[in-house]
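can u do me a favor
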C-alpha cells in the first residue's frame, strides 16, 4: 500500500484530514494502539491466571493448616473458619510462656541453691507471665465457647 498518493492541493508537506496519506497514517497509528492494547490485555490475562493459581495455593495451605490443627477436613459442615486456628495459636502461645516459666524457675532454683539468694524482681515478672499465659488460655476458651 505504499502506492498511496497525496491529494492535498495547497501544501503536500502537511496533509489534509481526508488525504489518503493522512488516512493511512491515522490507520497505522490506530493499528499500533490496538496492538499495544491487545498485548496489555494478554499480559493482564496471564497475570490474572497467575494470581488465581496463587490463591488456590494459599487456600490449600490454609486448609492443610486447618486440618493439621483441628483434625477436621475443613469441608462444608466441618469448617469453623479461623476460630480453631486462633484457638490453637493462643494455646501454643500459652504453652510457650509456661515452658519459659518452668525453665526460668528451674534456673532460679539452681541459683538459690548455689548462692542462697532469692531474686524477688524475678518473682514479680513470673507472676506477670503466669497472668499472661492465663489470659491467652481464657481467650482460647472464649473462642471455643462462642458460636456463630
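np, heres the sequence
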Amino acid at each position: 500500500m505504499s502506492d498511496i498518493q497525496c491529494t492535498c492541493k495547497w501544501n503536500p508537506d502537511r496533509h489534509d484530514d481526508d488525504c489518503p496519506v493522512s488516512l493511512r497514517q491515522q490507520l497505522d497509528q490506530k493499528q499500533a494502539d490496538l496492538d499495544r492494547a491487545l498485548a496489555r490485555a494478554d499480559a493482564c490475562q496471564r497475570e490474572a491466571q497467575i494470581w488465581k493459581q496463587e490463591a488456590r495455593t494459599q487456600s490449600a495451605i490454609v486448609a492443610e493448616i486447618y486440618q493439621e490443627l483441628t483434625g477436621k477436613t475443613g469441608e462444608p459442615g466441618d469448617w469453623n473458619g479461623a476460630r480453631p486456628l486462633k484457638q490453637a495459636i493462643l494455646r501454643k502461645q500459652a504453652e510457650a510462656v509456661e515452658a519459659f516459666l518452668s525453665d526460668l524457675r528451674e534456673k532460679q532454683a539452681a541459683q538459690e541453691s548455689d548462692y542462697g539468694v532469692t531474686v524477688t524482681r524475678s518473682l514479680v515478672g513470673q507472676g506477670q507471665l503466669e497472668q499472661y499465659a492465663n489470659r491467652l488460655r481464657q481467650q482460647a476458651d472464649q473462642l471455643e465457647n462462642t458460636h456463630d
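The chain has three helices and no strands. hope that helps!!
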